[in-house]
Write a structure and sequence with these properties.
Layout (H helix, E strand, L loop, with lengths): L1 H19 L6 H9 L8 H12 L2 H6 L2 H4 L7 H19 L10 H11 L6 E8 L5 E10 L8 H10 L4 E7 L9 H14 L5 E9 L2 E4 H4 L7
Parallel strand pairs: 3-4
Antiparallel strand pairs: 1-2, 1-3, 4-5
Helix pairs in contact: 2-3
């Protein structure tokens, strides 16, 4: 009897999503629905509440490491992997739609990189190569590490840019646990990169910083006025 009641609840939640999407769903209810597909015979409402209690927000849940997720009662490895797949699949979905996407505005570049850093819990540096019409050609992670300690590998940037037969790039990095406002070190590193790349024929068009679901362009903020 208890299993039939549980099954009826799940069917009602599924039908609600099919009809309205996530409109009207609380955060724990969104997770509850997701967990239906990894925990078919368990009360996922309780597990969903446990996740929100520990990580506070949906972004906190999706950005948590697998081993940390497994510390939550009811989360096994398969469920933790399912949770981590959501931001990764979202990123792939966005990437599949941005072939030859225009990067000709600050807003477009910021939106693109916000999606690229979705769900990232460590600091990474990404480089986007653009053609002469400022359309995206390719983007890759150049380096990664602990926050505040990521070194920019100039050789990798040069190789990646030449491989894509481009002369212009946009750099971006994230502050996983910080503010998106550029620090003095960010501006200094941008200046050094600009001057290092210029003699080898690579133009650094902008540097985007992403944090907390927000992004800022150093060029738009005026920091590039010093890069002469």
């Amino acid at each position: 009897m208890a299993e039939n009641i549980h099954k009826g609840h799940r069917e009602r939640v599924r039908k609600k999503f099919i009809k309205t999407g996530f409109t009207g769903f609380a955060d724990h209810e969104k997770l509850e629905l997701l967990l239906f597909y990894s925990r078919p015979r368990v009360d996922t409402n309780t597990i969903a509440h446990n996740l929100i209690d520990k990580f506070k927000t949906l972004s906190g849940v999706f950005e948590a490491d697998i081993e940390i997720l497994k510390e939550v009662d009811g989360i096994d490895e398969s469920t933790a992997v399912l949770i981590k797949m959501i931001p990764a699949l979202t990123k792939e979905y966005v990437n599949s739609k941005v072939s030859l996407m225009s990067m000709g505005s600050y807003k477009a570049a910021c939106e693109y990189f916000k999606n690229q850093f979705l769900g990232e819990s460590i600091e990474k540096v990404r480089i986007a190569c653009v053609d002469d019409k400022l359309r995206l050609v390719d983007c890759a992670v150049i380096s990664e590490g602990v926050p505040g300690a990521v070194e920019v590998n100039i050789r990798k940037i040069v190789e990646f840019t030449y491989k894509n037969k481009c002369e212009s790039i946009i750099m971006a990095h994230n502050h996983p646990n910080g503010d998106f406002i550029p620090s003095d070190d960010d501006i200094k590193a941008t200046s050094e990169m600009f001057r290092t790349l210029k003699p080898v024929g690579i133009k650094l068009l902008d540097h985007i910083i992403v944090a907390g679901g927000q992004a800022i362009s150093l060029k738009e903020s005026g920091a590039f006025t010093l890069l002469k």
